[in-house]
User: Fold TMEM9 protein from Oceanodroma tethys.
Amino acid sequence: LFPQASTMFAQCTQKCASSVVLIALLCCILSPPAQASKSSEDIRCKCICPPYRNISGHIYNKNVSQKDCNCLHVVEPMPVPGNDVEAYCLLCECKYEERSTTTIKVIIIIYLSVVGALLLYMAFLVLVDPLIRKPDAYTQPLHNEEENEDARSLAAAPTPSGARANTVLERVEGAQQRWKRQVQEQRKTVFDRHKMLS
Assistant:
């Protein structure tokens, strides 16, 4: 019962994540062309005007089209009198900026769906998986035996002076020796059984 529930939960999580990603991709593909779907919040003209005479510098933003992106259309109210407007506008640097809020929304949806799927999977591993997997009566003695062999091989290995006894290299060598012994024992049992059968 529990393994079936875990597989059903994993399949449901995968289906939910894939459907959210599919919906986000469809929204991105089926969205109208960029020029037609540009809203007023997607475009702006930004004018950076430095200090001029007794007027401090200021940054002006306004939602205007690209052809109207200049000091005369963006800087409102004009901080200088009429005869100084041209000199003031020559100092201002205006840039036309545009962005796609639809693309930003789609990317955020995809990101949140992936993070949500990972959080669901983590919750499944933390909460449900320990209940499903009960300790096996056969593998537990084998695990204990391996730990005992580790302790014996570390105790039998000579420790060099000034070095730690439990270094990574010694662990790897101990594991390699255990693996060689296991392979030799398996060969011996296979050959013994072969002799008995023949």
About this structure: The helical segments are 2-30, 71-74, 85-91, 101-132, 139-156, 168-197.
